[in-house]
Amino acid sequence: MTTSDPFVHVITHPLVQHKLTLMRRKDASTTSFRTLLNELAMLMAYEVTRDMPTQDVEVETPLETMTATMIDGKKLALASILRAGNGLLEGFLAVVPGARVGHIGLYRDPATLQAVEYYFKMPKDMPERDVIVVDPMLATGHSAIAAITRVKALQPRSIKFVCLLTCPEGVKALREAHPDVQIFTAAIDRQLNDHGYILPGLGDAGDRIFGTQ
Ligand SMILES: O=P(O)(O)OC[C@H]1O[C@H](OP(=O)(O)OP(=O)(O)O)[C@H](O)[C@@H]1O
Ligand SMILES: O=c1cc[nH]c(=O)[nH]1
Ligand SMILES: [Mg+2]
Hints:
GO cellular component, one term: cytoplasm
Function: Catalyzes the conversion of uracil and 5-phospho-alpha-D-ribose 1-diphosphate (PRPP) to UMP and diphosphate.
Number of domains: 1
Radius of gyration: 18 Å
Bound molecules: 1-O-pyrophosphono-5-O-phosphono-alpha-D-ribofuranose, uracil, magnesium ion
GO biological process, one term: UMP salvage
CATH topology: Rossmann fold
Cofactor: Mg(2+)
Strand order of the largest sheet: 1-11-9-7-4-5-6
Keywords: Allosteric enzyme, Glycosyltransferase, GTP-binding, Magnesium, Nucleotide-binding, Transferase
Strand content: 25-35%
């Protein structure tokens, strides 16, 4: 599914779509699921950081001195929604190694599907930072909304949300709760089922990354 909402970015690059398809296969091993997620994270990080701040620096080439461009990576904070968000961290950090990293521990109550917080730790100096919140799945939206609400209270410069997969229900909920937050995803699937799982989806991301099924 595509969208005309300028705050929702579906990354349609063929490499992203190919790797996502491999991850959806129910017989993908834990090793290959994790490897593909890592590769996808790098590709998505490239898209998400397209407008990140840069600075001019002096550099001496073997021939002369010039003014050149570098990113201001230290002003970026990644916020991983545990557990599954950690599956995206390595790939993001490969692309922006200077980023600081926060963790937001949330699990979905299986009965109510509400997000329950068990941990929260973010870097210092948040008002000086742009934040990218990462979680492979945006389903009901409860986890992302709760995480972003907590991050927003620290007044960062900006917040983006990156997931691998979402559905119309999750996009709508997050857009309504946090209309200022841009959403980046590789796909918007058809719908949620009665247990809050994305259809067709890829199953339980946390269990597939960590082999805990
Ligand atoms: O949009 P929602 O309906 O809130 O669902 C999405 C959340 O569900 C999964 O986490 P889960 O609670 O299974 O925890 P885990 O990452 O520790 O497996 C997933 O990683 C998201 O955080
Ligand atoms: O489909 C889903 C929904 C929530 N969390 C997952 O890991 N998968
Ligand atoms: Mg899970």
